[in-house]
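[agent] plan:
  1. take the single chain provided in the ticket
  2. run structure prediction with default settings
  3. attach structure tokens to the ticket
  4. add a short note for the reviewer (M.T.)
[agent] executing step 1
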Amino acid sequence: MAQMQTARANIASHVSAERTLQFDVALHDAITTSIESMADLHEAVIDCVRSLRAAGIGPVQMILAMKACTLDSGGRYHPEHDEYPATNVDLLIDQIVRWSIAEYYNNASDSRTIS
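[agent] step 2 finished; step 3 output follows
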């Protein structure tokens, strides 16, 4: 708890109110505009992991397969007028791996919630 208080004090002391407002707006916009696309991505991850698990692919190989799929996706899919470089998929690898592991070991029949 003390570390968080120190971190908040650092922000208050070294980052202007204008910059924190800019951050607030950018964070809010990112959350509200990406929640649907993140839910769609989560659904796709679940479907891929279920297919891999059903095929008898082990957990380590599944993780490697999902990473490869993520990295290769930039080369496979290029929407017209796409303003974001394919390298941005690197930003999502950690989340995709977390979802993949959770789904692989999930015993429930339907795990379609974003964590």
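[agent] step 4 note for reviewer: The chain has a mean pLDDT of 82.
[agent] ticket updated
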